[in-house]
């Protein structure tokens, strides 16, 4: 397995270097890069993979050009739900011998154990960066095999010394532990993680591969004015959606998370009730591409989100004064013609 931190990958300023854990297995490098570009300019990014098979180990690195963007990425993106994973974003440590080879391979786990039980067992021996219990995708049953990635190799060695060959509480046989570097083929046997729909939806609709993308939208940016002429591009070249019934606790970030899997998001604006300091239950999202905006409507309109039925449509543009006058004039002409016909019939 590749080292968790690559000294050649990082620059000298540790305040700009991030490690991202719990990445979905089928997340592409382009999607990964685009997600973090949404916060600010980055110098480099990579998902750590097996060099021979390109198998993702479930974590990656991003180096920002500015420390404030790195901090904002932690505040904004850590905890973000991506498919069936909730990612963790944190400052990465500089490279060094102490952090190499800190990944453990564990077997003979109880079949009912999840990451929670695994963490509880290994937590006393050091700082756990990431843990994983392998599941057979065909049956949904644990393979009784797991991995624990520690902060340092010393911590991993201590865990092996204290736990390997022992039968901890809740186990029926001794667990066997060794360093995971020679066991990457065991990880590959699990195969790719199946796609899991966006949380909080019932029957989320036929989301296509092209929708599983991320966007250059900064969730921390200010609001926008919400103007956009429906199905025609607005002055900024985007297509604005009206999203209703998103709940009173909705924020720009949660609305962004809702729409972003369908394509490139330019701007998000949740409408706020400033007296109650809460969302009014609706907001606007501007997307760059018309087809992606239409896909969002097709997949989300009428579906359940946070216990509510969403209403998603293109935002109707407000008529200009000239258009309103023309419409009124046309209405007067129609009335006049109808009046004439009535008089003619009499």
From TrEMBL:
<feature type="domain" description="RRM">
    <location>
        <begin position="16"/>
        <end position="94"/>
    </location>
</feature>
<dbReference type="GO" id="GO:0005737">
    <property type="term" value="C:cytoplasm"/>
</dbReference>
<feature type="domain" description="RRM">
    <location>
        <begin position="102"/>
        <end position="182"/>
    </location>
</feature>
<dbReference type="InterPro" id="IPR000504">
    <property type="entry name" value="RRM_dom"/>
</dbReference>
<dbReference type="GO" id="GO:0003729">
    <property type="term" value="F:mRNA binding"/>
</dbReference>
<dbReference type="GO" id="GO:0009967">
    <property type="term" value="P:positive regulation of signal transduction"/>
</dbReference>
<dbReference type="InterPro" id="IPR035979">
    <property type="entry name" value="RBD_domain_sf"/>
</dbReference>
<dbReference type="GO" id="GO:0010629">
    <property type="term" value="P:negative regulation of gene expression"/>
</dbReference>
<keyword id="KW-0694">RNA-binding</keyword>
<dbReference type="InterPro" id="IPR002343">
    <property type="entry name" value="Hud_Sxl_RNA"/>
</dbReference>
<dbReference type="Pfam" id="PF00076">
    <property type="entry name" value="RRM_1"/>
</dbReference>
<dbReference type="GO" id="GO:1990904">
    <property type="term" value="C:ribonucleoprotein complex"/>
</dbReference>
<dbReference type="InterPro" id="IPR012677">
    <property type="entry name" value="Nucleotide-bd_a/b_plait_sf"/>
</dbReference>
<keyword id="KW-0677">Repeat</keyword>
<protein>
    <recommendedName>
        <fullName>RRM domain-containing protein</fullName>
    </recommendedName>
</protein>
<dbReference type="GO" id="GO:0005634">
    <property type="term" value="C:nucleus"/>
</dbReference>
<dbReference type="InterPro" id="IPR003954">
    <property type="entry name" value="RRM_euk-type"/>
</dbReference>
<keyword id="KW-0539">Nucleus</keyword>
<dbReference type="GO" id="GO:0050686">
    <property type="term" value="P:negative regulation of mRNA processing"/>
</dbReference>
<feature type="domain" description="RRM">
    <location>
        <begin position="239"/>
        <end position="317"/>
    </location>
</feature>
């Amino acid at each position: 397995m590749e080292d968790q931190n690559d000294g050649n990958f990082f620059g000298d300023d540790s305040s700009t270097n991030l490690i991202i854990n719990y990445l979905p297995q089928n997340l592409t490098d382009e999607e990964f890069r685009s997600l973090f570009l949404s916060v600010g300019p980055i110098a480099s990014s990579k998902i750590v993979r097996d060099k021979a098979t390109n198998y993702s180990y479930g974590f990656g690195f991003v180096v920002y050009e500015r420390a404030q963007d790195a901090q904002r990425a932690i505040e904004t993106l850590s905890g973000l739900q991506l498919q069936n994973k909730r990612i963790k974003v944190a400052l990465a440590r500089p490279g060094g011998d102490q952090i190499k080879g800190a990944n453990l391979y564990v077997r003979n786990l109880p079949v009912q154990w999840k990451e929670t039980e695994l963490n509880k067992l290994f937590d006393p021996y050091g700082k756990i960066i990431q843990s994983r219990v392998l599941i057979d995708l065909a049956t949904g049953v644990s393979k009784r095999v797991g991995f624990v990635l520690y902060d340092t190799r010393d911590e991993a060695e201590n865990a092996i010394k204290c736990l390997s060959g022992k039968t901890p509480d809740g186990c029926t046989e001794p667990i066997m532990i060794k360093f995971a570097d020679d066991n990457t083929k065991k990880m590959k046997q699990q195969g790719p993680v199946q796609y899991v729909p966006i949380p909080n939806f019932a029957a989320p609709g036929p989301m296509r591969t092209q929708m599983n993308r991320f966007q250059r939208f900064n969730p921390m940016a200010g609001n926008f004015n919400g103007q956009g002429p429906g199905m025609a591009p607005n002055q900024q070249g985007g297509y604005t959606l009206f999203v209703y019934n998103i709940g009173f606790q909705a924020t720009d970030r949660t609305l962004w998370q809702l729409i972003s899997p369908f394509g490139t998001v330019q701007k998000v604006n949740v409408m706020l009730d400033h007296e109650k300091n809460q969302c009014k239950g609706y907001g606007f999202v501007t997307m760059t591409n018309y087809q992606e905006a239409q896909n969002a409507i097709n997949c989300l309109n009428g579906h359940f989100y946070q216990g509510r039925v969403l209403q998603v449509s293109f935002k109707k543009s407000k008529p200009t004064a000239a258009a309103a006058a023309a419409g009124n004039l046309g209405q007067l002409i129609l009335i006049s013609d109808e009046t004439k016909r009535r008089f003619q019939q009499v």
